[in-house]
Design a protein that fits this description.
Helix content: over 70%
Strand content: under 5%
Mean pLDDT: 80
Shape: elongated
Low-confidence stretches: none
Structural class: mainly alpha
Largest sheet: none
Radius of gyration: 22 Å
Distance between the termini: 55 Å
Number of strands: 0
């Protein structure tokens, strides 16, 4: 079982690396600062704005007032990705890659099994929800497609926060194992001092990478507020539908 999971993970890292997950997220209208010419990044920002506006217009025109609350969440998350998250997280990943290379961790992959599991679970749940509501497609295919696109993008938007915390967790775990291996030695040797210094330097670099993320803390609060408002609106809609059916 362990050998099979290693093969699957190796396959995913070779043919569907972290950049692939970020590209899927970018397709659904959430900006990320990739390593590419600036003209492509500007076009990507324009694309994010355009697809958001299209979804907003379709939903605003074709649905009731309570469902329009999801527009609030979509606009907030899109603006957060363009103005704050995309650039900050792009700098964070570049910083981590440079740190890994400096400390001999160049082969350490940024995508962990937990991240792949989260991606496929989120995608599977969204596909299942879309499937059981497929009857809505035949009623209004445009509105159904807009909602499918919107909710899939919002689901995948949270992956960026998972990526950040997962990367920090993996490096912190490596640092812990590094110090544990030093402390477990019965007799000291000449390399212990240099290895302790190396661990302290790695810790400082890890703290330095966290400072790059200070700006995106506000986006976490915005995401919670926007999701809460959308959930309240959805619950209200369900209660209204049930009350109408009873009548």
């Amino acid at each position: 079982m362990g050998y099979t999971s290693d093969l699957v993970l190796r396959f995913l890292r070779n043919y569907f690396p972290l950049k692939g997950i970020l590209l899927v997220r970018a397709f659904f209208g959430h900006y990320f600062s990739f390593k590419c010419p600036k003209i492509y990044l500007k076009l990507h920002k324009v694309y994010c704005v355009v697809v958001t506006l299209v979804c907003v217009i379709i939903i605003f025109i074709m649905t009731n007032e309570w469902r329009k609350w999801v527009i609030f969440e979509l606009v907030i998350m899109t603006l957060a990705s363009i103005l704050i998250e995309g650039d900050c997280c792009g700098k964070f990943l570049s910083f981590v890659e440079c740190t890994d290379h400096s400390f001999g961790l160049g082969r350490r992959n940024l995508a962990s099994p937990r991240l792949y599991a989260a991606f496929f679970i989120i995608t599977s749940i969204r596909l299942y929800i879309d499937y059981i509501n497929i009857h809505a497609f035949f009623v209004n295919p445009v509105l159904y497609s807009a909602f499918t696109f919107l909710y899939t993008g919002l689901d995948l938007n949270h992956l960026l926060r998972m990526i950040v915390f997962d990367i920090l967790y993996e490096r912190a775990k490596h640092l812990r194992n590094h110090f544990e291996s030093i402390c477990s030695r019965v007799n000291g040797d000449d390399n212990m001092i240099s290895e302790v210094k190396r661990g302290i330097l790695l810790y400082k670099e890890l703290i330095g990478s966290i400072t790059v993320l200070e700006k995106i803390q506000v986006t976490y609060l915005l995401a919670l507020v926007a999701r809460f408002a959308a959930n309240v609106a959805d619950i209200h809609l369900i209660l209204c539908v049930e009350k109408r059916d009873e009548v």
